[in-house]
Sequence to fold (345 residues):
Amino acid sequence: MRDKFKTLEQVKAWEIKEGRGLFSAQHEEIVEGVTTDIYFVKTQEILAKKGLADTVVTAEIFARRDGILVGVPEVMALLKDCSVEVWALEEGQAFKAKEVVMRITGKYCEFGVYETALLGILASSSGWATAAKESKEAAGDSKVLCFGARHVHPAVAPVMERAAVVGGADGASCILGAKLLGIEPAGTVPHTVFLIMGDSVEVARAYHEVMPPQEPRTVLVDTFKDEAEEALRCAEALGPDLQGIRLDTPSERGGVTPELVREIRGRLDLAGYQHVKIFVSGGITPERITLLKEAGADAFGVGSYISGAPAIDMTMDIKEVNGKSIAKRGRIPGITPNERLVKIK
Fold:
């Protein structure tokens, strides 16, 4: 079993290593219990002093609202060396409010200090996955890519984007987030390259020349000129090789509207470029996806709607102590029946 915090003395003796530049928790720190709430360490110490450290308990985790469960593999990695039994819904499975999504049985000293981390893993990942599911449901058969990495701390960006794909997104731009799922990251290029090169058509040609064949030829068209004009210029330059144009018009110019998408679709079709798809990003929400898709948009890049999704509040309750049903007031004592739970440890 890996060493974990068990006393306040251990906590007080723990020091930040000199030269630490990033504030995010390292993997070994999470395992050690450094990210836990201090009251769980106090609980461990009190129980140990009273000879109750090995008390066998059953704990249940339930969610406060409907959602998609994500984070189970991380929880299992955290509990890897703990002598406990675990039942849970499957990764990516939908759950209802108040439904038990995970049950853990074992000596409290084995896993009690991890309550903060366990709940945080499931709460955040499930919140992101649920927002991705809402976006994908609005998009239907149209592709949804997660572009949310820039909105969160880099330490959790891959966790967020992985959760988004599990929740339903078709891909993610964050390299590590995609790689964790065994897929390649997806995305075109930012406005930066257009501003440096000075012309959208030149960037389109350079992208076609430099990027490998498997990379989709999708070009931003909102940097310099009218979006419809730039779309036609790029289509004329690349012809059948242009697969799509991307609209990311800033809010200062009114953002991407259904009217703009409808106009560009019409102008591309009239010019014989029916094969060119329209990819939309920038402040995309499920409601906007519905409107933009009706106007002719073919794919969507969703950022802050997923990355900024609220965590789904998770609660862990002790429901048995040494095999005896128990619960705090307001809860029903004993194990909560849920046939959907599968034993995973």
Remarks:
- The chain has a mean pLDDT of 95.
- The chain has two domains: 8-126+310-343, 130-307.
- The CA atoms of residues 219 and 245 lie 5 Å apart.
